[in-house]
Amino acid sequence: MTAQQPTQPRDAASVVLARASRGGYEILMTRRPDAMRFMGGMHVFPGGAVDVSDASDAVAEVSALSREDAASLLSEPPELALAILCCAVRELFEEAGILLARTREGQPVDPARVRDLFVPLRDEVAHDAVAFATFCRRERLVLATDRLVPHGRLVTPAISPIRFDARYFVTPLPDGQVVVADPGEVTETVWAQPAEAVRLGAEGRLNVPIPTMAILEALMQAPVLRDLLDGTFARGRVRVRRLSPLVSCVLAPNPGPMTGPGTNTYVVGDGGVVIVDPAVPDPVYVDAVVRRAREAGGCRMVLLTHLHPDHTQGAEVVAGQLDCAVGAWEGVAGAISYVTEALSDEQRIRAGGATLRALHTPGHASHHLCFLMEEESALLAGDVVAGAGTVVIAPPDGDMSDYLATLRRLRSLGLSRIYPGHGPTVDDPGAKLDEYIAHRLERETQVLDSLARGDTTIPRMVSRIYSEVPVHLHPVAELSVLAHLEMLEKAGRVRRQGEDWTPVTA
């Protein structure tokens, strides 16, 4: 499989429309038509890509927020920030028939006029932001961009052929308005509480993609609608949990397809700590990490399990605030300006009451380190082990034979607990590692069986092996199959010619 440059993500906006229900709140999910190229057949939130017209002066003139207000809210350049907000309002009207607007006199827009007069016009006015702005001026309306509360941002992984940089917003259902879905954009609407939507997704009764599931799981942490709508939760409430006398976890606000609920950042020790994988430069999150370290006597070193962005983007700012070194695998330490400590296999790093032993654990990344906390026989595993699901092995830096060797090395350590980079703590490490090894060996058997059936290209193998996996996730699956094929090629069991693979017969 020939490596390709990642597709540049398009700016996009999605709206979590919420209404009070049964002591909590429900959110609106819409099912996209099966024929849509991106997320076809999936239950998602209303939204779409930002159009160049969303940044026009005509739209800015009918927005409640100015470009400068939008820039302050989203920490984006003024023109882009307001375009994102206006796109969110426009797409919500286009797909769901909900109009976030008020009169120029500040009164709520009449819901009967929205339903009977405005919704029938949306095919004419909602596809183009300038036409939308003209409609608003004619009807003497102001777009209620000030009612959109930021609630996260997800970027489609680089391996996907279609990518979006999507900002999510929460807003209440306007009084009296009802959802009128556009049948060309939406085939089903569902109102559900976040926990209910997660359950229905897990049961297969809703077809919820991973990014949407991440947003739903984040919404579950805010059971009170008022907190969402006044921004108390959305502006970055960060969870800090004590997992043992020597280990605390700060969950980074970077949920996504590859990060699950977010990256786990660990603060280890008491009386001088080490911090493992400061993930993002989000100011609320950084403050929580720094505050926890200072409460425990300051920081001796920031440790990086590997250099993937979702584990490192907060490292420089955290280390700067705490005036401490940053350590990473010696093979890459010199390549990153803020990494000042080169760590070797079996090297010990001491914190207050804790001793961490660095273990070179390639597979997910050639430069990956895990850290064994000797006092607890516990492993800070980075991306070698996930608390839920499996780990992506993506060539060329990911190597399946190295990964299996790493799993077997960790299995021999007699671990009592694993603290993964993503997901919940693993309390039965032996069973988890056995499961991981068995899963990879089973996948190897499936690859060989697919080859024996005449599937010579990776896409054909993925179609057979991952037939129950949504098509938009197949690019990730292709990387996993490639990793298995490269391992088999090293062992002399398969050969490749161009894009084709064939088994080697005895």
Write a brief caption for the model:
The chain contains 16 helices and 23 strands.
What does this 3D model show about the protein?
With 506 residues, the protein is α+β, with helices and mostly antiparallel strands. The protein has 16 helices and 23 strands. The chain has helices at residues 57-60, 67-74, 78-96, 111-118, 122-125, 129-138, 194-202, 210-220, 225-229, 283-295, 309-312, 315-322, 400-411, 429-452, 458-465, 474-490, and strands at 10-21, 24-31, 43-44, 47-49, 101-103, 141-143, 149-155, 164-172, 188-192, 240-244, 247-251, 264-268, 273-276, 299-303, 325-329, 341-343, 348-351, 354-360, 369-373, 378-382, 417-420, 494-497, 500-503. The strands form five sheets. Strands 1, 2, 3, 4, 7, 8 and 9 form a seven-stranded mixed beta sheet that branches. Helix 7 packs antiparallel against helix 8, helix 10 (283-295) packs across helix 12 and helix 13 (400-411) packs antiparallel against helix 14. The two termini are 26 Å apart.
Key terms for this structure?
alpha+beta; single chain; 506 residues
Q: What's the layout of helices and strands?
A:
Layout: E1 10-21, E2 24-31, E3 43-44, E4 47-49, H1 57-60, H2 67-74, H3 78-96, E5 101-103, H4 111-118, H5 122-125, H6 129-138, E6 141-143, E7 149-155, E8 164-172, E9 188-192, H7 194-202, H8 210-220, H9 225-229, E10 240-244, E11 247-251, E12 264-268, E13 273-276, H10 283-295, E14 299-303, H11 309-312, H12 315-322, E15 325-329, E16 341-343, E17 348-351, E18 354-360, E19 369-373, E20 378-382, H13 400-411, E21 417-420, H14 429-452, H15 458-465, H16 474-490, E22 494-497, E23 500-503
Parallel strand pairs: 1-8, 13-14, 14-15, 15-16, 20-21
Antiparallel strand pairs: 1-2, 1-4, 2-3, 2-9, 5-6, 7-8, 10-11, 11-12, 12-13, 17-18, 18-19, 19-20, 22-23
